[in-house]
Design goal:
This protein is of the alpha+beta class and 313 residues long. Helix content is 32%, strand content 22%. It has helices at 7-13, 16-22, 70-77, 83-93, 126-134, 138-141, 206-215, 232-239, 253-265, 282-305, and strands at residues 35-37, 50-53, 58-61, 66-68, 113-121, 146-153, 159-168, 174-177, 182-185, 191-193, 199-203, 222-225, 244-248, 270-271. The strands form three sheets. Strands 5-6-7-8-9 form a five-stranded antiparallel β-sheet, with no helix packed on it. A five-stranded mixed β-sheet has the order 10-12-11-13-14. A four-stranded antiparallel β-sheet has the order 1-2-3-4, covered by helices on one side.
């Protein structure tokens, strides 16, 4: 049996991407520093929400609002194993041998800057438009989102340019999302849209809010969007200003726990996730409706294409 590495040695020598590959998980095709995966830590994750930056040696599960280094991942993935057992497991899976003597080469500090270059109204970039149309919320989104163009500058001052749909949070930072990335250009924060002084509706992310707005165009609630479940306590603090609260969190494990904790803090709040019963979140319901409508339209088109019109004399 090979010598057990220390936690520091393992984090220096092991690769998260390599570990995930050996466990059978591959990222979705994309460009950029971060690789996106369907989360292997949660059930029923339909959209890639697990990001890995192998240069920094870190991961973040946007759906669960949790992240960390390779050992933190191992502890979350192999819940029944202790700390040293997880270190051994990662070492074995990645086939890492402890060499004697060895010179440790710690990771070089990496500078990564996200800089917003410009912001435009929705509709200018076809890729952003197509993405929001695929989620069934483009027409609603035009009232709330913008096109955000930004670049990422690495430690060698090399810039890569990106674009996404986004909106501002309470810290005046852009919460952005496109087909392959979900993140924040600055400090995370909740987003508040004022409305009725006593009624408020709460959501995890802006796609769920837009889906609700699509279904409830006349609703007058004030809106609180967490932008990440890690800001649940901030959401609770803001929600205390209202006497009627409707919660529309995801129906996965993390969302259900957040709903439970929210109602525990504010017992008069109501879990409204039954509005998308059978789906993980509100947007999944809207996408399913969009797919059904497209199928029905295709059936009608195919039917009329086969109808033979009598020749008129």
């Amino acid at each position: 049996m090979s010598k057990l590495l220390t936690a520091r040695e393992l984090k220096t020598q092991a690769s998260l991407v390599d570990l995930l590959s050996r466990l059978g998980y591959q990222p979705v095709p994309k460009r950029g520093r971060e690789k996106m995966y369907i989360s292997m830590l949660r059930d029923n994750d339909s959209n890639p929400s697990f990001s890995v930056n192998d240069d920094l040696g870190v991961w973040f599960d946007h759906g669960a609002g949790k992240g960390g280094n390779i050992i933190d991942f191992g502890l979350a993935y192999w819940k029944h194993l202790g700390f040293n057992e997880v270190v051994r497991k990662i070492q074995d899976v990645c086939s890492i041998e402890a060499a004697e003597p060895r010179i440790l080469r710690p990771r070089k500090p990496v500078k990564v800057n996200h800089v917003v270059e410009k912001v435009r109204p929705l509709g200018a970039h076809p890729a952003i438009t197509d993405y929001l149309k695929s989620r069934g919320v483009f027409e609603v989104a035009k009232f709330y989102l913008s096109e955000v163009y930004y670049f990422v500058e690495d430690e060698n001052d090399v810039r890569k340019h990106y674009f996404a749909a986004g909106w501002l949070n309470e810290n005046n930072s852009w919460e952005v999302r496109n087909r392959y990335f979900k993140g924040c250009m600055g400090h995370k924060g909740i987003t508040f849209i004022p409305g009725h002084p006593k009624k408020a509706a709460l959501f995890e992310g802006f796609l769920d809010f837009l889906s609700w707005r699509f279904d409830n165009p006349e609703a007058e609630h004030s809106i609180i969007v967490l932008n990440t479940l890690t800001l649940l306590q901030k959401g609770i603090a803001k929600a205390k200003e209202f006497s009627c609260l409707d919660i529309y969190f995801d129906r996965d494990k993390a969302g259900k726990l957040a709903s439970r904790d929210f109602i525990k803090a504010l017992p008069y709040a109501t879990d409204r996730s039954s509005a998308y019963d059978g789906f993980n979140d509100y947007n999944d319901k809207i996408k399913a409706q969009l797919k059904t409508a497209a199928t029905e339209q295709g059936t009608k088109t195919n039917f009329f294409a086969n109808v033979r019109v009598p020749f008129e004399r």
